[in-house]
Design goal:
The chain has two domains: 3-173, Rossmann fold (3-Layer(aba) Sandwich); 184-336, Glycogen Phosphorylase B (Rossmann fold), CATH 3.40.50.2000. The protein is 46% helix and 16% strand. The protein is built from 13 helices and 13 strands. The longest helix is centred in the last third of the chain and has 24 residues, at 330-353. The radius of gyration is 21 Å and the shape is globular.
């Protein structure tokens, strides 16, 4: 299929979806995010947004040229969308999202944010990014709900003073009660642009402790939240146990909860490995690679289990595991209770602005 045929086919599908949404006679809200690209974290946030708006139809708000074209058919713009959500993920960052937000504002649509992160979105961006382009846009967005305290501080530095912390959007998926822990733990390693030397440094820091646990009868459960996680997680697992199990490629939040809920803890590079762990009341060790990771951990009062990716050592990692081994099982309910607080705040934020 040529690129032009693919685009036409996709446009026809979008027209069909938007016309069917009109027939529901429910208010339609647009969603700006990165769901549908095979990343469980982004897809979980899309699921969370839909769950929190059961009396509305939530549709992806598309790229500027596409929305301009759809508006000609009455399928975009303020007469179609009640509002547009800047959704979950670290979207207040450079590159793709500023033009999409500007497109919605130019159309005259009310835009608001729901647990959005601020800063570098991942490995593909430098740790420190220029957010100057956002100042003008955010001043036109009256309701700004952001992920955590670091996101709040970054906006304050920009001169944006009307934002509030409501937690990561995926916390709206928080479960009812934690399961009792078993002698098992989740392992997730994300691919990056790191050198082989940097990977060896990371592996050297975690292998001795994880191998000890495996030798003592603990079960490591390797998981991938996107396809690119599979290879590095497999490489690590070969060093932990002589007979590693296959990496589980998790596609939905429910699959994640089924895998993680019985575990004593998780060790994750992916931010939403830690977020969804908290949704199940499972203590996370976060191998943080960007500010967004600490932003979340601080919002959950779990920064003691945060380890900077670039400076991790064997001693540092062993200390975190020892802390977890000494924690009473009540920590699971405490984590779940904190997640429920953010879930409730998100619901209240939505009710006051929808």
């Amino acid at each position: 299929m040529t690129e032009i045929v693919r685009k036409i086919t996709d446009l026809i599908r979008t027209v069909g979806v938007r016309r069917r949404a009109l027939r529901t006679r429910k208010p339609i809200i647009g969603y700006i995010g990165w769901s549908g690209h095979g990343n469980l974290g982004d897809d979980a946030m899309w699921e969370a947004a839909r769950n929190t708006l059961p009396n509305h139809v939530l549709l992806q708000y598309d790229a500027p040229q596409r929305e301009k074209l759809l508006a000609r058919f009455g399928l975009s713009g303020p007469r179609y969308f009640r509002s547009v959500i800047l959704g979950g993920g670290t979207l207040i960052s450079p590159r793709f999202f500023p033009p999409v937000v500007e497109s919605a504002l130019d159309q005259g649509i009310l835009v608001w944010s729901l647990g959005t992160g601020v800063g570098s979105s991942g490995f593909e961006m430098e740790p420190d990014v220029d957010l100057t382009d956002w100042k003008r846009l955010l001043s036109q967005i009256p309701h700004l709900g952001v992920r955590g305290p670091r996101s709040l501080d970054k906006l304050s530095t920009l001169g944006i003073s009307h934002s509030v912390v409501i937690g990561d959007l995926a916390l709206s998926l928080t479960q009812g009660k934690p399961q009792p822990p078993t002698k098992s733990f989740v392992v997730n390693i994300a691919a990056s642009d790191q050198t082989a030397k940097e990977e060896r440094q990371l592996f050297a820091a975690v292998i001795p402790t994880l191998s000890r646990l495996a030798a003592q009868g603990w079960t490591p459960i390797p998981v991938a939240m996107t396809d690119s996680d599979i290879a590095p997680t497999e490489r690590l697992m070969r060093h932990i146990t002589p007979a590693p199990t296959a990496v589980r490629r998790l596609a939905t939040s429910q699959e994640f909860f089924e895998a993680v809920s019985p575990c004593a803890f998780t060790m994750s590079v992916r931010l939403h490995g830690a977020v969804l762990s908290c949704c199940a009341g499972v203590p996370p060790i976060m191998l943080g690679y960007r500010d967004k990771c600490l932003d979340f951990m601080e919002s959950m009062e779990l920064e003691q289990f945060y380890i900077p990716w670039e400076s991790i050592t064997e001693e540092m990692f062993a200390e975190k595991i020892a802390m977890l081994e000494d924690l009473p099982t009540e920590i699971r309910q405490e984590i779940l209770s904190r997640a429920h607080i953010w879930k409730d705040r998100q619901e209240a934020f939505i009710k006051s602005h929808v």
